[in-house]
Amino acid sequence: MGMTTAQKIFAAHLVDEPFAGTKVLGIDVVMCHEITTPIAIADLMARGKDRVFDNTKIKAVIDHVTPSKDSKTATQAKMLRDWARRHDIKDFFDIGANGVCHALFPEKGFIRPGNTVIMGDSHTCTHGAFGAFAAGVGTTDLEVGILKGVCAFREPKTIRINLNGTLPKGVYAKDAILRVIGELTVNGATDRVIEFGGPIVDAMTMESRMTLCNMAIEAGGTSGICAPDRVTVDYLWPFISDSFASKEAAVAEYSKWASDADAEYDKVIDLDLSDLAPLCTFGYKPDQVKSIDEMAGQPVDQVYLGSCTNGRLEDLRVAAQILKGKKIAPTVRGILSPATPQIYKDAVAEGLIQIFMDAGFCVTNPTCGACLGMSNGVLAEGEVCASTTNRNFMGRMGKGGMVHLLSPATAAASAIEGKLADPRKYL
Amino acid sequence: MKTFGGPALFLDRSDINTDEIIPAKYLTEITKEDLKPYLLEDLKLPGFDPKSDKTFGAGAVVTRANFGCGSSREHAPWVFEVNGINVVIAQSFARIFRQNMFNCGMAAIELSPEKIDQLFSYAGAADATIEVDVANTTLTIKGGGREESMQFEISPFDKALVLAGGWVDYADSKY
C-alpha cells in the first residue's frame, strides 16, 4: 500500500511512538510570534529551562501587534526580542523587517517539501502549500518544540480534495477554499490532513496554494498539503539553487514527498469548480457560505484587505485592477495591510499602493492587527466588515462586529459599492 | 493525584470557539492569573451569564460538538484552569484545544451524543456536580437527587500526560 505525503513525513521524522497511534516527531522549523511565545519563554525560565534546541531551526517575528500599541504589547515584544538576542536566533524579524508570519516565513525560503513545521498559531497549516506537514499548536507544545525540537501528533488520516475543471473569471483560491469548507463543514476535517490536488491546484501559484492551505484549520484540519512540483521549485529556487544541479533535479528530489498513486485516503472528494461563482460567508462560522449573487447589496462599514490568507502581492494586484481609477464609497473605510515589507515595496514599485490610496484606502504597515481584533482596524458594536481574512467568528474583529469572508476581488468590488458586490462586472 | 471536576457548567451549543472562550484582546496578558476575570466573556447563549457566580464557581464544563475551534491560543484552557475548571466534557473537540488541555495536565473528555444528552438532563439541577476519575476513566454526575456513572475512553498518551501533570515535564524527562 502506498503512502500519503503526511504519512511519508511522519515516517521520516519519527522520534518515538510512546503509545500506539501517538507519534513524537522531530521538528524542522519552530516558528514564534510575540503573542503566544513570551508566555512559553516565561514558563521555560520559571522552570530553569531557558534553552533552545537549535537556534538555526527557530524563526521568530513580531507581527500580531506591531508597532506595539500599549505597555502590555510592548512588554510582549520586548520578551520575544530579548529572548531572540539571548539565544542568538538568527532569523528574528522586528520592526522594519517584520511581516505577517505565514507570509513572511515562506517568502524567506524557510519551508521545504517534507519539512515538519510547528508554530503557536492555528494558521500554521499555510506552510503545507510547500508539501510540508505544518500544524498550529498551543503554547505548551511550542515550549517543548523550543526546548527539545519535538512535538506529538496522532497518526494523521488524509482527506483528498480534487479541484477539477478551471476556475472561472473572477473566482480565486479564496473562493475555492470557501467552497471546500462549505463542503466539509467546520469540523469535517478534525484530526485529518486535507490534501489538495487536481488540475486547478496544479495550475495555482504558490501564493494561491498558501491561501488554500491557510484555511484548512477552518474545517478543523491539522494541516493542508499540496504536492511539491515545478511551481514549488520555481518559488524556492533563489534559496535552493546551490543544492541542485537544475530545477528538474530539484523537482525529482522533492517529488518523493508527493502521495503515492495507491495511497490510502480517509475520504476522496471531487469538486468541479468550473461554474463556481465568487463566494462570501454570511454567518459566524466559516462554513456558512453563499454565492455573492445571494449576498450582494448588503451594506458594509469597512473593507479589510490583508492577513496571512490574502495579503500577498497577487491579492493586491487583483484588487488594484478593480480599484484602478475608482473611488471607494464614502460610507466605507478601506484598509490595506500588505503582508510583508517585500510585498509592500513591490506594491509601491508596481504602482499598486498609489491605486489603493487614490481610491481612498488607508494603507498600514504589515501586521495581523485587524484580523483578530487586536489593533489597526477594530470594528465597533454592530459594524460589518468585508474581509479577506480567514475567520468570521462573532466579535472576531471587535466585540459586536460582523465579518464577511471573501476574496480580494470581491473585497475591492464591495469597497467601491459600499456593500457586498460581485467583482466579475469590474473585470 | 489531583481531583478532576466540580460544579457543572452546561454550555448547550456546538462550535463554541476560542474567541468566545477568551477574546483576543486579552492575549496581551502575560500571566495565566491575569486572564481570570474574562472567562467566556464573549459567549452569547440563552440563559448564560458569563459574569455570574455559577460561571465562576464551576469545576467542570459540559458542552456539545467541536468545542474550542479556532485559535491555537492556550489561553483558552488556561482561563478554565485559573478558574478551577480542569475538565471539559464534549461530544467532540477541535484538535489544538484538546491537545492543549492534556498538555496542561487537564482533561478533555469525548462522549457519545447520547451520553452528552444524559449529562444535559442534569442541567436544570442547581447542584449538578461532576467528578472525573482519569486513572479509572469513570465519570460520575450528581444533582437533583439523582446520580449516575459512566465510562469514557481516553488515549493512553493523553492519560499519561494528565498523570504526569503535563507535556513539558513528560517530554523533558523522556527526550
TrEMBL record, chain A:
NCBIfam families: hacA_fam (TIGR01343), IPMI_arch (TIGR02086), PRK00402.1 (NF001614). Keywords: 4Fe-4S, Amino-acid biosynthesis, Branched-chain amino acid biosynthesis, Iron, Iron-sulfur, Leucine biosynthesis, Metal-binding. Residues 7-296 form the Aconitase/3-isopropylmalate dehydratase large subunit alpha/beta/alpha domain. It comes from Geomonas oryzisoli. It comes from the Bacteria. The lineage of its organism: Bacteria, Pseudomonadati, Thermodesulfobacteriota, Desulfuromonadia, Geobacterales. InterPro entries: Acoase/IPM_deHydtase_lsu_aba (IPR001030), Aconitase_4Fe-4S_BS (IPR018136), HAcnase/IPMdehydase_lsu_prok (IPR011826), Homoacnase/IPMdehydase_lsu (IPR006251), IPM_dehydratase_rel_enz (IPR050067), IPMI_cat (IPR033941). The keyword Hydrolase does not apply. PROSITE patterns: ACONITASE_1, ACONITASE_2. This is 3-isopropylmalate dehydratase large subunit.
TrEMBL record, chain B:
Pathway: Amino-acid biosynthesis; L-leucine biosynthesis; L-leucine from 3-methyl-2-oxobutanoate: step 2/4. Pfam families: Aconitase_C. Residues 60-113 form the Aconitase A/isopropylmalate dehydratase small subunit swivel domain. Its EC number is 4.2.1.33. Catalyzes the isomerization between 2-isopropylmalate and 3-isopropylmalate, via the formation of 2-isopropylmaleate. Heterodimer of LeuC and LeuD. This is 3-isopropylmalate dehydratase. The lineage of its organism: Bacteria, Pseudomonadati, Thermodesulfobacteriota, Desulfuromonadia, Geobacterales.
